[in-house]
Amino acid sequence: MATTKPKSGAVAAARKKGPPWLWLGVAGIVVVLLAVVLIFSGGSDKKKNSTAAGVEQTRPVTVTGTALPELPQSGDDPAVGKEIPEAKGASFDGTPVDIRNDGRPKLILFVAHWCPHCQREIPLLAGYLKSHPLPAGVDLYTVSTAVNQPRGNYPPSAWLAEKGWKAPVLADSDDGKAATAFGLNAFPYFVAVDGSGKVVARTTGEITTDQFAALAAKTLGNR
Amino acid sequence: MSVDQVSLFLALLAVVAELATVTALGLWIGGRFSPALHRLGRQAAEAVAPQALALAATVATVCLAGSLYFSEVAHFPPCHLCWLQRFCMYPLVPILWIAAWRRAGRVAPFAAAVAFVGACISTYHVALEHHPEWESSVCDPKNPCTLIWVKRLGYLTIPTMALSGFALIITLLVVSGAARAHPSEPSDLDRSDAHGHH
Known about the structure:
The structure holds two protein chains of two kinds. Chain A has six helices and ten strands; from the N terminus they run ααββββββαβαβαββα.
């Protein structure tokens, strides 16, 4: 009996504190996970924004003309009837892309690679455009802007190519000159321009294919 | 360590948290049907219960450190849902450490309630990532809640990691609370200990 008491006390103490392997186990798990990370993952973060998939993801853009006011959240759009500015730049691969008043009606779509709504809109429109081309004489331009690698779905060049996007893409500058010039306030962002280079409508957010077709028709003066 | 490495490390910790939570849930449910699982679950709970508050405090601390790393070092600005989850997680750190230090198990139900609210917000945030149209049909160029900054192992985003943390904290607090509410019967260890001396 003399030896029972201390041993029972030790067991009680052990039960009060929990088994000694508990914290050793937690520490062991942490060490193993750290080792896994250090062994199996790269040591440095990728360079932001500039080059990926062998092409530039942002490029210098030259804007001339008067910038459009930012699209208001509600009410009449003050940009309707105003002439668009000109944005001169290039696509990801360096092909020149100029969005200018060339006498042709046009739709300009601004997208951000990380925006989940753009990620849904692009495949929707790409599929639609395969079987429903834009009306004759209407051009479609895309502006890839707000490029930010950590935000995911990077690079935009690979994303748009993967979704089968055929329209010419202007790679906006790091500071989003084209987006600012056209009054972007959210993504995705559409600007419909008539043959005289004036804005006929602007809208943001996901739109249906019917709304897209209606927007294209507006560029021809069909309301 | 790079941001990629830290996010992978935190993602792996989240996987461990999920495995621990699922195992505990499995033992609890399985224990209702299988005496062997019931016994195993009870032994596991008895082993963990004395340190459950400290373990929960550790989980909350890691979550706090992870969220601060993402916002202050990786420069991923928190959206408003991230902030709501922080409001739930951050107070748990001092509360649970003090409770663990003072062995104040009575705190467990209140801390679990806070963690439950955090878990609900995390769940909504995860759902929003899959259904961005719930928030809006447009992306705020600055910092939408639907924006996925980190996605590791195919599914672990920042709110998913937070949900894993909240779930493990709740599990540990339930273990702690259950041990307090139902002091264990003499364990097999005690019985063999006692029998060995009679």
